Amino acid sequence: MTLYSMHYLLKFTLLSLASLYFFVEPVFSTSRRALDQVKPTQIGFRVALKHVDHGSNYTKFERIQRGINRSKTRIEKMNAMVLASNLGTYDVESRVHPGNGEFLMNVAIGTPPNPFSAIMDTGSDLVWTQCKPCDECFDQSTPIFDPSQSSTFSKVSCSSDLCQALHSSTCQDGCQYMYTYGDYSSTQGILATETFTFGGSDKVSVPNIGFGCGADNEGNGFNQGAGLIGLGRGPLSLVSQLNEPTFSYCLTSIDGSKTSTLLMGSLASANSTLSASNSKATNVMTTPLLHNPSQPSFYYLNLEGISVGSTHLSIKKDLFTLSDDGTGGMIIDSGTTITYLEESAFDQVKKAFTSQMKLQLDDSGSTGLDLCFKLPKDTTTLKVPKFVFHFKEADLDLPSENYMIGDSNMGILCLAMGKSSGMSIFGNVQQQNMMVVHDLAKETLSFVPTQCDAL
Fold first, then answer.
1. Annotated active-site positions, please?
2. Which parts of the chain are coiled coil (predicted)?
């Protein structure tokens, strides 16, 4: 028998529209289990992140269609999960984890180190890569890791804390695992520990990182990666294992050619983040992180309201509240492209934008987004309403490029948000050009306005 572990949410992955070609001016404590190996007390490193479609030659329309196709199965599966959760009919042997992320990071594993590209995923926990001998493996650009050639590879015992951190365990020549993702992709193999090497010119090697050595890996959802680095809040994630409860990332503009940045451990502290971004302390917006016992890996935010222009929307006070049964609420996620708001809230946002934009609606459906406008010909400057997310203790006034995306050739301007049922998701387009600092010791999340391609 194999071992199953789970999260209940699927991620939407929808690639955004191409960038604006004209100027838009706005008018505006996680519980942790002790692990078997004690990691060094001070770990800090920097890793470059690359979007999965970076450098591709797809047209704008093709990019949109790719994003829509990646979303279909996940949306269907999420709706089925919400219904099953309300009815209390989950099959405990078929629980799934979120869909895969949108950013890749270069990592090396073993001694001597073997490089591979992994998906960064803040919505799941397991760290894993494909391993030889491989019963079923997908194509990857780097050689598949061969544990027999590494002097630091060690299987994890079934009695270890790492193995026990899984929902159930099966002992067959070590701790066996299976992880199934929302798009029906999966990885299955042996749980082990290895030395992982991170960073560019200043490399940092960390011993005894627990990871899945996958011999049976199936599905099309791994987006050019040879594995996945889980940065969730659970004990199997890299964040929990490093014994450094702080990490941050800074995502460049979606039309940029430079890579984004991930900072881990001591380099991701508030002071280090401010120094790296040349930002002043007054620019930091900090809000508490919430914990959901039924979805312990996700980073929940307390969203109290939304403003469009000068209008504070009359959204019900409890609409974004995390319910006692674990439903609802809002998570922040680097692997979801655009923000998804609970349907009744999105309807109010849509109504407010429609009345304030004074542009003709585009109802062609060609973009896959829920609210688009037709652009007048020869448009070079356009004023749009301000957009503010009122998180608890933090009013996040977004730059216009973080919520309005358009294409002058297509003659279209769209709101980079959509509607969801139940849970809301704060996506990565809304996070671009901000250092997003996760501090799990203080149980806070901070936004620091930053020119990410200058880091």
1. 121, 333
2. none
